[in-house]
Design goal:
By secondary structure, the protein is of the alpha/beta class. Among the domains are: about 1-85, no CATH class; about 240-525, no CATH class. About 35% of the residues lie in helices and about 15% in strands. The chain is built from 21 helices and 16 strands. It has helices spanning about 1-25, 45-50, 55-65, 70-85, 100-110, 115-125, 190-195, 215-225, 245-260, 275, 290-300, 310-315, 330-345, 370, 375-380, 455-460, 465, 480-485, 490-500, 510, 515-525, and strands at about 30, 35-40, 95, 150, 230-235, 235-240, 265-270, 305, 355-365, 385-390, 395-400, 410, 440-445, 450-455, 470-475, 500-510. It is globular and about 90 Å long.
């Protein structure tokens, strides 16, 4: 018996030793198609990080992401979970709380081409294989089971969640709402949407702004637990949100309109899919996204608000939103583009005649990467969707600027990045090459009309269609400037020097309410 024990112990020690030794030589596997995310990279050793403990924490995260046979273990775990999961109630809604919303927003292409990949582009003249990859993603474990709790379907571990409970937005840092109280002097449309402005902490309601709101630990817990949440319904994952902080957003646009009254200013607010496909609990009341356009219109004097919500509602039975991602599809963006053309008095291009269609498949988006360890993820994995893109037939040349200025640039062949090799969520950043700081698109359209688009990732999918209508298109993503920590670019100077005619603001409903967006817009437009 002792010999058997010794054999087991020696075998275990030998395996452990092999794993430890091999761990000293492994490197990052890069992108994991099974988890739909980029894995952590080996941290650089520094004495200060070692003695502070930071290096060991980062190395532990690296090992967890890159140990031997990791992909096999992940696949085995998913298969095991699927065997135990009896998916009988596919139409019921399951709410996931405490999700890292910023992570799946980045996975949708919020960062664009990294500097390293841009260097590859300049050296060999060909796009990098994963040019839409997100920088700064390496340090995240991406493990949704570490950060979320399951709610709904009777699975709650605290206060009862109500349909009107507070719901934070994209970055979880600056959104709040009211339930049933109405602030004195508040815009009627915003009262109906159940929103407040100027609040920097989600789930925290001011009695001054909301005298009728409830109070107490249960109320506060219910509000906070729906911040950064997702809804799984059937084979669709959605982000519920309301119309938060939009008066402040509209106020910035109105102030810019007074500074440059000669411009034609337009605003598009992209709803999330929950507005069309979630149950009434998460698409009405405090979650009613249809109020967003009216709220912005009420505060954005001098700006024409494009009514895209009703246009999208007319086509909700079509594939206008991804089931596994937070963004609209190219088709959904096209209907928003048509609404813009109607508002600006232009003729919209024909999606079938004026563009060449291409497809990436299979496609599993940023929301899937948040739930890949859950049994419900099999609904999406076993039924993946495709990502269609449309390249304008009209001649065009795209120039990308790596930094927040017009100095360091390089050119790419097409408005669409068609050279992705990964299987993951980052493919959404094929549209206009992700969220670049600045882009310039010269076209063969002879009309001489010039456009500036200021947008988040929702706007990226619209850019290829806008190319058809203008001789020159500039694109600015304000978040990129904030990431540099240097907000000294003046969009007004660019507008005056290039003779821009139209300015289009195109943000998602959650992007419009983000403090990072408002701060960046203030710096870009109002200084």
């Amino acid at each position: 018996m002792k010999k058997k024990y010794y054999a087991v112990i020696c075998t275990f020690i030998a395996i452990l030793t092999i794993l430890v030794v091999c761990s000293l030589f492994i490197d990052s596997d890069g992108f994991s198609p099974f988890e739909n995310r980029y894995l952590s990279k080996k941290p650089a050793f520094t004495v200060s990080d070692f003695f502070s403990g930071k290096y060991m924490d980062m190395y532990e995260t690296f090992l967890l992401d890159n140990f031997l046979l990791r992909e096999l273990s992940v696949m085995s775990f998913q298969s095991y979970s699927n065997l135990l999961y009896l998916d009988l109630f596919t139409d019921s809604e399951l709410v996931l709380a405490n999700v890292d919303v910023d992570e799946f927003v980045r996975a949708g292409g919020q960062e664009g081409v990294t500097d390293a990949e841009a260097g590859t582009e300049q050296q060999d003249g060909t796009p990098g294989s994963d040019a839409g990859a997100v920088s700064g993603q390496e340090g995240s474990s991406g493990n949704p089971s570490d950060s979320m709790t399951q709610e709904g379907s009777g699975q709650t571990d605290g206060a009862q969640l109500s349909p009107g409970a507070g719901q934070g937005g994209d970055d979880g840092s600056d959104q709040g709402q009211t339930d049933d109280g109405q602030a004195e002097g508040q815009d009627p449309a915003e009262q109906q949407a159940g929103t407040t402005d100027g609040q920097d902490q989600p789930g925290q309601e001011s009695k001054e702004n909301n005298p009728g709101a409830g109070s107490g630990p249960a109320k506060q817990e219910a509000d906070e637990r729906l911040n950064n949440s997702l809804i799984i319904a059937g084979d669709r994952v959605m982000m519920p949100t309301g119309a938060y902080n939009l008066k402040s957003f509209g106020g910035i646009l109105a102030e810019f309109a007074t500074i440059m009254p000669e411009l034609n200013l337009y605003s598009i607010t992209g709803p999330t899919s929950a507005a069309f496909y979630a149950s009434k609990k998460y698409s009405t009341g405090s979650y009613d996204q249809s109020k967003a356009e009216s709220i912005i219109a009420g505060s954005a004097d001098g700006v024409k608000v494009v009514r895209v919500f009703d246009k999208l509602m007319e086509h909700k039975d079509e594939h206008i939103y991804f089931r596994s991602d937070v963004h609209w599809t190219a088709l959904g963006a096209y209907y928003a583009y048509r609404a813009f053309c109607e508002a600006s008095g232009q003729e919209a291009a024909d999606i079938n005649e004026d563009f060449t269609k291409g497809t990436y498949e299979p496609f599993l988006g940023g929301l899937y990467s948040q739930i890949y360890k859950m049994p419900q993820a099999s609904r999406l994995k076993n039924n993946p969707e495709k990502l269609d893109y449309y390249i304008p037939k009209i001649g065009h040349q795209l120039t990308l600027y790596k930094m927040g200025n017009l100095k360091d640039s390089y050119k790419v062949d097409s408005i669409i990045n068609t050279n992705f090799k990964s299987l993951g969520a980052y493919k959404y950043s094929c549209f206009a090459w992700g969220d670049q700081r600045i882009e310039r698109i010269d076209t063969d359209n002879p009309n001489g009309r010039k456009l500036l688009v200021i947008k988040d990732s929702y706007g990226s999918a619209m850019i290829p269609f806008l190319v058809h209508n203008y001789s020159l298109v500039y694109v600015i993503d304000p978040k990129g400037f904030n990431n540099e920590g240097c907000l000294d670019f003046d969009a007004k100077k660019l507008i005056n020097e290039e003779g821009i005619d139209d300015v289009l603001f195109c943000f998602s409903i959650y992007g419009s309410g983000r403090k990072i967006i408002r701060d960046s817009l203030t710096s870009l437009l109002l200084k």
